[in-house]
Every structure is written in structure tokens, then in C-alpha cells.
């Protein structure tokens, strides 16, 4: 599948789990994920975003889709280098966000804003060398969230000192 048109799933009013993994989505219409009553609870888009345009399209679809009941979003394995600020703010019920096996190098202010119900954030197997102070503050704002940070190519330098202190004081794994 390379494209998701508007209202692709709107007739599936009982759809609670949608697995679109392993596709090459290049175009996602802003209303592609709109389903009356927003029954969708799990969305698997792992290994399926073809390019950065698909990511920005997804951010718009999350904003317009009315996915208030979405609990789990899997974006692992998509070669993502960055996440648009506020991308997840329109999925307020999200409990699990899986971002492993991407190419993320930084967390920016506002990336995870509005995620008040998040329980698990998986950032394993990315390209993080360290986390700057503003990134640590962004992660700290998430509150009592299980943050998985293993298997990243951390750099041993003086810049990592704040990150190590934060790790020792937090629940990150």
C-alpha cells in the first residue's frame, strides 16, 4: 500500500486495531484515519512510512483523525530522524508510543506535549548520542512514564554529564 485516501476506514465503525505495518506509505490524506466514533485503539505503522512527507502527512492525519481513543501507536522501523513538535498532542489517550529502530538523534521541546496518559515510550535502537538539557526537561514533563533508551550509540564526553545525572535520578531504562 502506498497511499491512504480520505475516509479509507470510515465504514469500519468497530475497527479497534489497524495493522498497516510493512507498507510503503508515501501519501496519507489528512482524513484517512477518520472513523465515526473514533473506535481505533491500536495503530501499527511500523516499517511503513516511505519518506518524510509520509511522516508529516501522518502528523496531519493524527490531528484531523479524531483518534481520541488511540492507546497504542507503533512507528518503529521507519528511519525517522526527527518528530514534528506536538505531533502526538491530538491523541491524548495514547498510553504506548513505540519509536524503536529509527534514526532519531534528538528530542525537541514540544515533541511529546499533551501526552498526559502515556505509560511507555520506547526510544531504543535509535541514533541518540546524548540528550541535551531541554530534551531531558521534555522527557521529565512526561511524568511517571517508562522510558526505554537502550541500544543507542551514546557518546562519552563532558556533554553527557547532565544525561547521566538525569538517568540516575529517573526511571529511564
TrEMBL record:
Keyword Repeat included in the entry's annotation: yes
Protein name according to UniProt: Trophoblast glycoprotein-like
InterPro entries: Leu-rich_rpt (IPR001611), Leu-rich_rpt_typical-subtyp (IPR003591), LRR_dom_sf (IPR032675), LRR_TM_domain-containing (IPR050541)
GO cellular component, one term: plasma membrane
Keywords: Leucine-rich repeat, Repeat
Organism: Nothobranchius pienaari
Amino acid at each position: 500500500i502506498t497511499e491512504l485516501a480520505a475516509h479509507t476506514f470510515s465504514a469500519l465503525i468497530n475497527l479497534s486495531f489497524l495493522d498497516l505495518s510493512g507498507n510503503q506509505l508515501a501519501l496519507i490524506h489528512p482524513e484517512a484515519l477518520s472513523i465515526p466514533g473514533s473506535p481505533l485503539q491500536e495503530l501499527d505503522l511500523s516499517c511503513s512510512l516511505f519518506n518524510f512527507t509520509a511522516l508529516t502527512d501522518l502528523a496531519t492525519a493524527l490531528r484531523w483523525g479524531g483518534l481520541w481513543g488511540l492507546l497504542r501507536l507503533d512507528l518503529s522501523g521507519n528511519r525517522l530522524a526527527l518528530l514534528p513538535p506536538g505531533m502526538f498532542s491530538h491523541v491524548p489517550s495514547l498510553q504506548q508510543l513505540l519509536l524503536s529502530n529509527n534514526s532519531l538523534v534528538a528530542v525537541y521541546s514540544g515533541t511529546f506535549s499533551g501526552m498526559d496518559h502515556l505509560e511507555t515510550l520506547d526510544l531504543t535502537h535509535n541514533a541518540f548520542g546524548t540528550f541535551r538539557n531541554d530534551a531531558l526537561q521534555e522527557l521529565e514533563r512526561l511524568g511517571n512514564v517508562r522510558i526505554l533508551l537502550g541500544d543507542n550509540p551514546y557518546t562519552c564526553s563532558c556533554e553527557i554529564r547532565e544525561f547521566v545525572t538525569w538517568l540516575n535520578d529517573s526511571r529511564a531504562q
